[in-house]
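Retry 2 of 3 after timeout on previous attempt. Resubmitting structure tokens to design endpoint.
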């Protein structure tokens, strides 16, 4: 037996007693709305109860006592300045004044005691209350027909005061006309929340509870006429709350660890900067949300519902969509009544689909995706006894309980279809007692329409994880600030105590114990008196050695405790020397007293002692490894000399290159290396010097050589006439003098540099750090040192990057044709790419010219999809037998800490496909056409407004910099249901020019100016690649893509 027959066979339950007053929940909801509106429009609080009684309660009762018809009657609003406000009333069928709003029941609302300067505000709030009352009336009738138990108790009234007014003309059109027009009230509320684009910079907030408060505001949002609607928090805000909590907890933990460390060491009392009590998370993406949840302005703006509509046949063949559709409540151009939509589908049930040809509409499923859910509509052919009447019932698939069919009232059928969808998405009163959402059925003349709600498995579009904070909230650097995270430095310190010092002394004592056992065995073997005395003497020597070693261990651990965490290398050097002295003394004693024992102490030395290619430079905690070039960068950025240079750019350049080492290490034996030059110091065969480095990039290298390369390629592929055309369209054909280009670069650099107008660095923005040990010379040039330092601090990676660069490995990047060497830090956080010379073009020079524009763009943009560069360096390692020279960029790894199951590379060329045989390869990067054909309609996305604006802004910037051939890298994380995106290839100039020039020069899509590349890139990717799902708090869509809800 079908569910319809089962429902029809059940005994009917009596409907609830008809009430002519609002239920308690609706009364409380109307009261709460009015409190905020009065405060906003600056209407005295004593009007609160008067307006409720005169408009809401009286009109609701009037509607209930008169049957609703399709005929509408005017309701006028009249203001009389005399008499008491308590005399205000609704006059049924009495018509005065000149402005009418049409409702099923007509009359005049007469307000007494209203001053002339308040009439506009009263009109505004009265229109809103009329709309609210009408909606509550229809929703109440629908709830009663749905057997929802409504509670009728006296509500607790509240009063308050408020600010502002606005004018509109009809009860439903005022909602539509209001959209797109801002008011002072809305702007003021946005300013209060610090979320308006024009307000002060809010890229990070100095209040750890801000996101929590915003989330609580959404939980209690007053943006709907429905009192039972509880709106879900946008995923981006939910994630910001979690990230803020995690970051705050980590900061507090770091502070506790730092305080515990200080209590153990008086030397650490020199610290002047501390981790802030509250860490800050950038509020990236909140500008694209409407987070004002209590004002009248917000209430009007939210009288809409944006859904992603699609229609498919029973075999899941997509016949229409997915497309965006925006309902404006009770607006006949975009919204209709529930009865109208059901009747339209009923009339088309036998119509064949245009796409399927042979399948009627009744065999299709319609889907409405919105927020975090999806409402699916399906159809069944069944018969019910009553004809020409809409019957309704529900059935819960979880607890298997349902309701009997009930004939819907005319008022319930007059409910807006969009409001009905809003109730299905958000109203908690329609949830079953088992907390599941039941199916809702409508039946008439043989056709049953089923509405079912399911959670939506949508993907959040996520920008690169590292975004910028405001400069105002970035901590300035000083000498005592930890160069790496405190937790990491303390972890290294503990490892030194346990794995290095502890293991060494354990191995030494174990070896002494072995010698003691050997001596005792020899004593038992030889039973002569003379040897007995010798044995006793040796055992006493061993006991003395054991006590001395135990004392040395305690002294060593004390020395470690007193070592600053930024200078752990000083202890490593001390430990290396002292451990070697202890082993030599032990070996000498063993050779003299126990020469029969040939085994040495079995201690596995740490690599910085064992391996000559690992260097412990003083004044840092970072080890330099010759086979891991990024460690050279890590040491420079963490060294005392480098930090001093950054701090003293405004002082005289005649300063010491490094701070005085700890006194404990001055007695360390070793030869002194002579060195000349300023800012240098030598200690124990360690030499270090630092200075500002002037680098003059060739201004015309990029332009002239790239143009020449293009022309040379074209000569062998196109005619002379076509060659001239190409010369004309290439933007690089304009000649620029080196002087003017240099002047432009200097001007741009001074505008973006944080130190551009300061003295003390001889006009150079780059720092060269040279350091030598055991005839191995290291050089690290840090380009735009202060600019990149500030960028790293704004993104919160100034410590993490040094920590990550300590260890690296070679990496073969998939999907590219670059001949550059790549390295990846062992923790996967950062990618290091070598800069090349291609077609006589130095990528190094190109980047030095590009960098000022990059800093300016990052400064202006609150968020960016560009894979961020966090440093540009030259690394040089010189040894007698070999040398290494690298120019490298350090960039963020877009997919760090992400479980990526599918990767895509988009260029806006829909014809790009990966070969079928390649798709089966592991870790393959797919292309545009593969996404469009197989994944686009399956992976619906959220947060697209932020994505669109960010990509368009970045593409415009790259176009202005004459950069093309960049890609949008996309990674799908199935576990977190996220799609990670980032623009890559923008900093790898000309990486694919050779292969393109020889293989695809004749294709239209290849040689195009950067402006045209940007236009195609944005047009295709932003408009055609992703299907968005809008939430209730997303800003209104810019373009509607559909004007109908059926494919037939």
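Retry 2 succeeded. Sequence:
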């Amino acid at each position: 037996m079908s569910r319809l027959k089962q429902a029809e066979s059940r005994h009917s339950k009596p409907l609830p007693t008809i009430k002519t007053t609002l239920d308690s929940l609706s009364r409380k909801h109307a009261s709460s709305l009015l409190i905020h509106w009065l405060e906003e429009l600056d209407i005295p609080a004593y009007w609160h109860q008067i307006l409720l009684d005169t408009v809401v309660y009286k009109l609701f009762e009037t509607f209930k006592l008169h049957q609703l018809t399709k005929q509408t009657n005017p309701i006028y609003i009249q203001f009389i300045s005399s008499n008491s406000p308590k005399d205000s009333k609704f006059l049924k069928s009495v018509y005065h004044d000149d402005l009418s709003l049409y409702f099923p029941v007509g009359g005049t609302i007469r307000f007494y005691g209203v001053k002339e300067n308040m009439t506009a505000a009263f009109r505004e709030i009265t229109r809103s209350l009329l709309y609210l009352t009408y909606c509550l009336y229809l929703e109440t009738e629908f709830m009663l027909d749905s057997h929802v138990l409504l509670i009728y108790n006296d509500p607790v009234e509240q009063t308050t005061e408020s600010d502002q007014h606005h004018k509109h003309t009809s009860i439903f059109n005022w909602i539509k006309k209001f959209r797109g027009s801002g008011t002072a009230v809305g702007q003021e509320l946005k300013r209060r929340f610090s979320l308006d684009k024009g307000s002060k910079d809010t890229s990070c907030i100095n209040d750890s509870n801000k996101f929590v408060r915003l989330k609580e505001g959404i939980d209690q949002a007053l943006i709907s006429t429905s009192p039972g609607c509880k709106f879900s928090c946008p995923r981006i805000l939910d994630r910001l709350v979690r990230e803020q909590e995690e970051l705050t907890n980590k900061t507090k933990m770091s502070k506790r660890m730092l305080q515990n460390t200080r209590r153990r060491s008086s030397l650490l009392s020199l610290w002047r900067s501390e981790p802030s009590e509250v860490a800050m998370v950038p509020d990236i993406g909140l500008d694209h949300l409407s987070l004002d949840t209590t004002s009248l302005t917000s209430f009007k703006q939210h009288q809409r519902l944006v859904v992603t509509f699609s229609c498919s046949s029973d075999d899941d063949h997509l016949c229409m969509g997915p497309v965006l559709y925006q309902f404006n409540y009770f607006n006949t151009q975009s919204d209709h009544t529930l009865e109208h939509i059901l009747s339209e589908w009923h009339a088309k049930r036998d119509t064949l689909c245009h796409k399927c040809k042979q399948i009627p509409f009744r065999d299709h499923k319609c889907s409405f995706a919105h927020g975090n859910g999806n409402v699916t509509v399906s159809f069944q052919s069944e018969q019910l006894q009553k004809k020409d009447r809409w019957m309704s019932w529900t059935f819960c698939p979880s607890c298997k309980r349902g309701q009997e069919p009930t004939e819907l009232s005319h008022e319930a059928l007059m409910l807006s279809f969009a409001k009905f969808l809003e109730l299905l998405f958000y109203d908690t009163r329609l949830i079953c007692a088992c907390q599941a959402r039941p199916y809702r059925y409508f039946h008439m003349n043989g056709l049953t329409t089923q509405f079912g709600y399911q959670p939506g498995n949508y993907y959040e579009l996520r920008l690169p994880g590292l975004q910028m904070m405001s400069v105002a909230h970035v901590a300035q650097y000083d000498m005592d600030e930890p160069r790496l995270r405190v937790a990491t430095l303390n972890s290294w310190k503990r490892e030194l105590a346990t794995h290095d010092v502890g293991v060494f002394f354990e191995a030494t004592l174990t070896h002494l114990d072995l010698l003691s056992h050997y001596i005792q065995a020899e004593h038992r073997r030889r039973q002569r008196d003379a040897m007995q005395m010798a044995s006793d003497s040796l055992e006493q020597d061993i006991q003395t050695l054991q006590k001395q070693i135990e004392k040395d261990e305690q002294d060593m651990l004390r020395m470690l405790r007193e070592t600053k965490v930024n200078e752990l290398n000083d202890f490593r050097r001390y430990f290396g020397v002292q451990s070697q002295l202890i082993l030599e003394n032990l070996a000498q004693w063993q050779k003299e007293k126990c020469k029969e024992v040939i085994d040495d102490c079995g201690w596995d030395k740490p690599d910085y002692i064992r391996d000559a290619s690992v260097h412990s430079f003083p004044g840092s905690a970072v080890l330099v490894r010759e086979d891991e070039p990024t460690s050279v960068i890590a040491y420079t950025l963490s060294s005392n000399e480098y930090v001093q240079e950054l701090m003293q750019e405004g002082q005289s350049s005649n300063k010491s290159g490094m701070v005085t080492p700890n006194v404990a290490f001055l007695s360390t034996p070793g030869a002194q290396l002579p060195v000349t030059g300023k800012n240098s110091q030598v200690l124990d065969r360690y030499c270090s010097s630092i200075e500002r480095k002037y680098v003059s990039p060739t201004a015309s290298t990029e332009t002239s050589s790239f143009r020449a390369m293009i022309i040379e390629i074209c000569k062998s592929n196109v005619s002379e006439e076509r060659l001239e055309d190409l010369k004309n369209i290439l933007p690089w054909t304009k000649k620029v003098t080196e002087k003017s280009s240099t002047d432009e670069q200097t001007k741009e650099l001074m505008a973006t540099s944080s130190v551009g107008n300061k003295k003390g660095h001889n006009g150079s923005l780059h720092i060269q750090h040279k350091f030598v040990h055991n005839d191995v010379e290291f050089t690290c040039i840090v380009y735009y040192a202060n600019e990149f330092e500030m960028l790293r601090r704004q993104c919160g990676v100034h410590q993490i990057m040094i920590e990550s660069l300590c260890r690296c490995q070679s990496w073969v990047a998939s999907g590219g044709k670059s001949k550059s060497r790549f390295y990846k830090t062992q923790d996967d956080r950062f990618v290091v790419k070598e800069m090349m010379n291609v077609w006589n073009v130095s990528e190094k020079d190109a980047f030095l010219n590009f960098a000022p524009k990059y800093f300016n763009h990052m400064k202006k943009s609150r968020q960016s999809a560009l894979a961020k560069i966090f440093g540009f360096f030259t690394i040089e390692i010189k040894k007698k037998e070999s040398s290494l020279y690298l120019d490298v960029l350090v960039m963020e790894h877009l997919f760090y800490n992400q479980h990526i199951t599918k990767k895509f590379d988009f260029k806006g060329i829909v014809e790009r496909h990966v070969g079928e045989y390649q798709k089966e390869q592991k870790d393959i990067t797919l292309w545009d056409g593969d996404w469009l054909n197989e994944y686009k309609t399956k992976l619906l996305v959220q947060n697209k407004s932020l994505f669109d604006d960010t990509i368009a802004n970045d593409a415009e910037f790259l176009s202005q910099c004459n950069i093309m051939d960049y890609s949008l890298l996309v990674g799908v994380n199935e576990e977190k249901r996220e799609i990670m995106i980032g623009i890559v290839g923008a900093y790898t100039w000309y990486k694919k020019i050779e292969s393109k020039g020889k293989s695809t020069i004749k294709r239209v899509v290849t040689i195009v100016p950067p402006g045209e590349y940007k236009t195609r890139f944005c047009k295709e990717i932003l408009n055609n690649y992703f299907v968005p799902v809008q939430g209730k708090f997303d800003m209104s869509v810019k373009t509607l893509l559909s004007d109908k809800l059926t494919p037939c």
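Attempt log closed. DSSP finds 29 helices and 31 strands in the chain.
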